[in-house]
Amino acid sequence: MRDYPQMIAVNNLIEPVPRRIRATLGGQVVLDTVAARYVWEWPYFPQYYVPLGDVNSDLLVDEAHSSKLSRGTARRFGLQVGDLSRPSALRVFSGDVIDELDGLARFEWEALDAWFEEDEQIYVHPRNPYVRVDALRSNRSVRVELEGVLLAESNSPVMVFETGLPTRYYLDRTAVRFDHLEATSTVSECPYKGTTSGYWSARIGDVVHDDLAWTYAFPTRQLLPISGMIAFYNEKVDTFLDGVLLERPETHFVKH
Fold this sequence. Notes:
The chain is mainly beta. The chain has strands spanning 14-16, 21-25, 28-33, 37-42, 45-51, 60-69, 72-81, 84-97, 104-107, 114-117, 120-122, 133-137, 142-146, 149-154, 158-162, 168-171, 181-184, 189-190, 194-195, 198-204, 207-215, 230-232, 238-241, 244-245. It has no helices and 24 strands.
């Protein structure tokens, strides 16, 4: 499961990436560039397009297949690192294309083992430069209930403000009523927070409400204040902030 924020919508935009971008496969550096481009293929986040000259050509397998895409003609390549093969891993644009894309390669994100901005690993997709995420400690009271059953209560939450998403309230584990929660095997990824280390469902009577809460044991550097804390989908539970019941928001996670 992936955590896709509902970000500020941007589309049909190409911008330079002001960061060094690298990616690896099977222990080999596949690409290393300081001249990547952000390309918004759809409104919510961009993809990296990389100059072909900054791709390790020894690892490319020409699949001899070209196709006309919305942004122009692209030739398909696979990757081969030793016995490790990743077919259809990238497309290279040339000839009949938007001028800014000529000679650029667009990789399938999951065709590679790891991606890095400078020396920091990133997850799921490139971070949108127009998205901001802040984690702020607060002394406001937060109470979480479901069907009148108390799930958590705290006067020291960390509030996470993320562009396009409702405020998330991360609570210390000692503030959570685990007698109502059951651990699940669900894992989600977020380009801004990292990979979750746990999810919980809530059992209220005989009914199980799936995956209401989660935690990040090792979040990204920017979100270290939420390390080990637990947040609930305020789309799925009743959240009281300073004693006031908040309206359940509508997001792509839950449609009311």
